[in-house]
Prior knowledge:
The protein has 123 residues and is mainly α. The protein is 76% helix and 0% strand. The protein has one domain (2-115).
Amino acid sequence: xxxxxxxxxxxxxxxxxxxxxxxxxxxxxxxxxxxxxxxxxxxxxxxxxxxxxxxxxxxxxxxxxxxxxxxxxxxxxxxxxxxxxxxxxxxxxxxxxxxxxxxxxxxxxxxxxxxxxxxxxxx
Length: 123
């Protein structure tokens, strides 16, 4: 649960405070409103839970570094490829989003491995 909270806080902070203007401007240029309803927040909460679960499962089989890399690729890189392909990704956010998302996955992986250590971890 700690990792889910960390992921949720990182997502909320990054997209609500740091990058909100980029999102709103990009969506406005497409003639749309950036989705910020409670339903969207609930979906992102579920996403945070699923990413934390995914990191937990990976951490049982892979090293810390492998878990971070695989988790980041699955949760972020692929998502950005898809939403970039759909034309709804403001590419300017990536200079902030990439390092912050790496920090997000690194922190979640650290929390998971500290709070739920593997008995015979791979080194």
